[in-house]
Amino acid sequence: MTTTHTGNTRGARPSPATTPFSVVDEITRHCLDPHEPETVHIEVHLPAAPDPARLRAAFLEALRRHPRILMREAPGPWYRRRYTWELTSGPDTDAVVTFRDPTPDALPEARARALAQAPPLSLSPPIRLEVIGDVLVLVINHTALDGPACLRILATAAEIYGGRDNSPATSAAPPRPDAHPRQPPPSPGFAPVARVASGTPQADGDGNGILVADLPVPRRPRDAPYTVNDQLMVATARMIADWNRERGGPPRPFRITMPVDDRPRGTDMPIGNGTRLVEVPYSVAELTGDDTETLLRRTAERTRALKALSRPQLGHGARLLTAPVVPVAVRAALTRQIRRALAPWTSTTLLSNIGRVPYPLDFGDGVGRASAVWFSAPARMPRGLTVTTASTNGRLHLALRWSGALLGPEDGVHLRELFEKHLNSTAEKGRSS
Q1: Between vectors from CA 146 to CA 140 and to CA 152, what angle results, nearest 5°?
Q2: Which single residue of 132, 265, 338, 413 could bond 168 by disulfide (Cβ 3.0 to 4.6 Å)?
Q3: Whole-angstrom Cα distance, residue 21 to residue 23?
Q4: DSSP 96
Q5: Cis previous bond, 221, omega within 30
Q6: Tens digits of per-residue pLDDT, 106-154?
Q7: Architecture of the 17-425 domain
Q8: Distance between CA 264 and CA 418 in Å, rounded?
Q9: What is the pTM (predicted TM-score) of this model?
């Protein structure tokens, strides 16, 4: 992060430190839609409810220990060349942490708010933590921050609250594999990729819906050349292929967006939007003709090769599009036009697998360790559906999130059934994970 300070005269109030938006921040900022807020939701279930005063103090101290999260969008004229973040010394609002009674409707209502009400970019920090009994619901404005960065904040808060070490098993950045595919991955060329077929949209068609589920982590041979992430990728692709086929959709190639996070997990983890996006392709023939083992091996080759690549977060085109050579308002209009024009070639869906939650999230005596952690990523059109997974204690925490203009709650239930069926098909009974 490059931080700049503006000069000030003697006796003048110091100007806040600023840093320019990253490519990811700017592209997201250009494409904001009030009907589908760009939020990430993290839901942490604990064995017992934390003490409100202690948790509030611990969370605010965690923010101070990771000062890059204390930021707001700086105002500026339309002709400015960049959006910039102002870094603040503390939160702008007392509503960073709110506590609600654990009534039967409280958690569903908190989830609904997480999907519908993005924390404003004009207030520092652009996050909101709601506590409903023994459940923490952290809501993030995805223009500014991503889920792994904010999970790091929660781990620091847990350590401050409980006095227990919440360091990850390894704080180093995940190693990049040195692998290349034995054959080039299939390319859809100029043909449009598959879209998720429409189901029964929500009544008002606005916002996102969500379904969370708790499943066993799929078993696999110890010497398997594929990972749990590859099993999740295959289950996601076949879930959507079945869904579309049931609705008479034409067979088309798939591309599934997969975030890759190369950041270290220690307290020095860079805070912001730090993942890069790669796309895993599938041909129609593979999805309809390959047996599960073959598809898993093909998927493993592709994901290893894609993780090993060095490329900008959103590709070279996005970096060019955000070059500050014309006013940011002009770039915003151009970005929205390009996004609309490229909608038929946007990837089919996004699968974001956090993997094993790297931190114990141990709040100490009286509260304990997290028993489940769910994430969900925005599901704006034209994708309209995202699949997000994390695991703790041998359990897989699945979140299906969809655009209300495309799907409804009953559709979510059926998609979950399809996902579970195909995830089970990637695992063989009697094999160890």
Answers
A1: 95
A2: 265
A3: 7
A4: G
A5: no
A6: 999 999 999 999 999 999 999 999 999 999 999 999 999 999 999 999 9
A7: 2-Layer Sandwich (3.30)
A8: 35
A9: 0.91
